[in-house]
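Q: Got a minute? One more chain.
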Amino acid sequence: MKRLLIAVVALVATVSTASAQSWGDLLKQVAGSAITEIADKVTNGALSDAALNGSWNYQKPAVKFESENILSSLGGSAIETTVTTHLEKAYTFVGIKPGAATFNFNTDNTFTASLGMAKNLSGTYEFDTTTHQITLHFSSGLLKNLGSLTGYAYISGMELKLVFPVTKLVNMVRTLGSKISYLKTISALLENYENVYLGFGFAKP
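A: Always. Here it is, folded:
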């Protein structure tokens, strides 16, 4: 507990002066979801805002349940495992796998990305530090026709979850390839539930 408090104080003390690089260095030293979440609350989301900047490498699918009650009603970790398995197959189908997908968020609110078959993606983004809501405005690349895509960005230690409403995520992946049976399974599995978000799990290089 003492180490946790010291880590949080260190993060909060640098919130007004730390660069994206120094935030990254601090996170490497005190990485952990508990520390990150507490510091994020204390700084009104400034931790995530600063730590979001930089490069992120895709690691695995991400699933986010907004409510623990929803997670319980869905069958807990079992449903999350099932959804993740289907997502991984769908992602692999369109070339999204470790080593073939990256996201880079810049301090001027522009981004560049590569998601498997969709290379040279770019655009601008808006990030609300209090709600963690993020909106991507695609201006070039294969996903340009999607226009804007709104989801949520959550940072825990050196990991980033970039998640979107189920229907939005399905539309994104379908844009990268033809209709995929794995997505149909996921949609059917979650169609009666709200506040379930799917997307991508990244890590700092």
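A: The helical segments are 2-13, 20-30, 33-42, 46-51, 68-73, 77-93, 166-176, 181-190.
Q: Perfect, thanks.
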